Amino acid sequence: MALTTFVIERREDSFTYIMIAEDINKRKTAEKKLKESERSRKVITDNLMGVVYRCRPDKDWTMEYLSKRIFDLTGYPASDFILNEKRSFESIIAPIWKAKIRTELTNAISKGKNFKEEYQLIAKNKEIKWVYDLGEGVFDDDGKLVAIEGILIDISEQKKYRSQLEYNAEHDLLTNLYNRQKFHQIFNNYDHQQEKNALFVISLLEFAPFIVSHGLAYYNKMFKEISDSLVKLTNQEILLFRNHEFGLTFYFRNYRDKENLIAFYDKIKSILNKHLANGLTKVGLGIVKLLKNDSLEGALKNGLIAANRTLLFNNELISYAFFDEKMAQEIERENILKEEFLELAKTSDDLGLYLNYQPIIFSKNGEVVGFETLARYQSSNFGYISPLEMIPLIEKSHLINEIGYKIISQALTFLKKISVFKKDLFLSLNLSILQLLDAEFLEKIKFLVKEKKVDPKNIVFEITESSYLLNISTIKALTKNINDLGIEFAIDDFGVGYSSFHRLSEINFKYLKIDKSFIKKLLLPNQKATILIDIISMSHKLNKYVIVEGVEEQIEVETLKEIGCDYLQGFYYSKPLSDLEALNYLRKTKHLKKN
To answer: Rounded CA gap, 409 and 402, in Å?
Structure first.
């Protein structure tokens, strides 16, 4: 109850009063509720996940109210911003967003909509914070905008997560290069009719055996080092992508001419040479000049075709080829041959597969000591196919185990025939590293030896020296199992790679076959066979025999005998022979001693 007293009349000795009694319970109750409401609102706003605000629509966004969560967001207390006590809210908005926020807010309010925007604030510690601002205008009775009320929500972590997802969707996680998906997006944004653009497709397919021999971690490390080096060649016009597991691609925009492309290849080659100095593998590079309607998938396919073809038919460590119409025709031929080889692998017949045999001669007396097996193929579509084309295609088609088994089977049938002339005549066969790695290979050889009734001591498997360099412990274990059967090994094409006798001495091989390129040097004026002499001498110290291939001239025979070469092979003695010709050769030779 509240009492209010008024004096209404005053006399000399008395006063007249009016007293008004007012029931203020309702007002007190209302004031109490208002205080509780204010307290509740403060409790709620201070504990919301976001920052509640009320600001004026002036140039500083002058804050009239700001919940205490602003400290968690920016590192500044709310009192700093109220009526711009120490700083304005506008001062902590990232500069690039200031104009956009004002424009978006004005547009939203003019249309009677809520203001919704994501933007950045600069916190006290200079950290960038992303906020989602959801606000609305407050108007007076005349419809004039007097304030903006809303809530700021910290979305920095969500932004980081979203950015990471977007990054992962566009980048290769090993190399951090753009991936194929991003490549498509960028590729489709350019006009290949107006610009002279090209792809440099790098095939690292020859690296695949490293996964088997050294493990995935080793391969990934090597691939990452290569990509890190190549990315240094990029700029606004030249981008680098990882287009598949064994491939990298440069997208070269606005090149000048063919010489410009070749000059860029030279830069790539210079970098790759540093990573491939050990000579363990090869790299092929296909260059595709983009035309008006070329798709990325088609261009990449053509680039890989060119890259892989130069790998097949070029012995250089790093080589390139331009894709052209002639190559497209060659690919059509290749695909037809692959179909033929697939049929050959599936059937029990040998179809167009046959073998030739070239005699191996003991240098001291010209006696035949064995033969090398040479695989040949007669295509139903193209006729005779060179081994230089045949073997790489079979390996590329992953049919080397099936077709290689047919070759060994034919060869052992021939070995049985020549054993009639002399029991210790040996037969050498080229063996792919893929065959040696086949888990069933040992059992297959055991079966064939038993089926053909041949002495395994008369079998020699030739493996190129690069096969031995993949993983010495793995190859050593695999060859030992074969050696235990009595079969010997020869290292073929010695001198082409970069192996050492110390490394090769860890493998139990009997023969060292020297590449014919060494022999050709013997015929050059003022050349001495010093290196060849050293190789032969070292081989003999290790109790190995040396076979020299490609012998064609009398002077080569005389020189090789003089320096102590053990066995000779080449056209000087005989071309590769069919099985019947080889048997006749044995019958006619005067130097074949009977048992």
So the answer is: 11
> What confidence score (pLDDT) does residue 43 get?
46
Residue 178 DSSP label = B
Region 236-263: mean pLDDT is 90
Number of other residues whose CB lies within 10 A of the CB of residue 19:
8
For the chain, the straight-line distance linking the first and the last C-alpha, in angstroms and rounded, comes to 141
Helix residue ranges, H only, 177-288 = 180-187, 208-214, 216-230, 258-275
Q: What is the pLDDT of residues 454-471, one digit of tens each?
A: 999 999 999 876 555 556
Q: What is the dihedral of CA 39, 43, 44, 48, to 10 degrees?
A: 150
Instruction: State the amino acid at position 514 in one-letter form.
Output: I
| The two structure tokens encoding residue 212 | 């088997």
3-state secondary structure of 113: coil
| Sign of the C-alpha dihedral computed for residues 558, 560, 565 and 569 taken in this order | negative
Six-digit token string for 224? 């990452």
192-240: pLDDT as tens digits: 667 788 999 988 877 776 676 677 888 888 888 889 999 999 998 899 9
Query: Is the CA virtual torsion 565, 570, 572, 577 positive or negative?
Result: positive
Structure-block tokens of residue 500:
């050492």
The one-letter amino acid at 362? F
